[in-house]
Amino acid sequence: MLRRAVTPPIATFVLGDSPIVAAAVHDGHAVRAEIEPLFALNELERLREEDPYTGRWTEVAATRVVAGRSRFEFDLNRPRDQEIYRRPEDAWGLHVWKDALPDDAVAASLSAYDSFYAVLRTVLSGLVERHGNVVVLDLHTYNHRRAGPECAAADSAGFPEVNVGTGTLDHVKWGSLVDHFMRDLSAFDDLGRRLDVRENVCFQGGNLSRWIHEEFAGKVCSLAIEFKKFFMDEWTGVADERQVILIREALASTLPGLLRELRDADHA
User: Has residue 4 been placed in a domain?
Assistant: First the structure.
């Protein structure tokens, strides 16, 4: 069932006393009321490119960041000058808007984008001050049946079940942490099998990770984690609840290793 179009906060920040943060910046589906009539896309078309269920997965961490607005209103994982999908080529060929957005609508989206990053800077600064080193699990999902609901899934050779994007992190500082995380995630028993976890195959991470690595170089490691939508029907938005829970448990299984790596990084 689609979520009602209301206007929630830009994002919800839940603060905890741990150096592990989980973020879901594409979980939001609602849009502010004044721009909803401007969309050429309907709710289901927007939902198809959003990351439902990622907000639930953030529950593994004490500090959580969950977007409340749709990426089609403004995309927090793209650079500021690209945060609005103005052209079809910005949005997988989709015609997002009926007409060009009014200047005041653009200004409101930019203001919301800036507010999010200002709060995130404050949150991460506080965690670094308390813990020294911090890791962010930047959680996403991606489609693999783009040609239609009845089409064959994309070739698994180029589309792993879990893609860990590390394109902007310092591998000298964080390489051991990345390896430990991928090893633990791959070892999780997912209904008698192992998840296919690979690094930088189809995604290397977006703006959130890049911004974190620039703002908090050597102190905060962001892992851009993309789950292929093998756990759900990307055309209807309906998920296999058992798999949603198992993915959350798989992520939770990596936390002890991440904590050890963060402690070790203090002495690196």
Answer: no
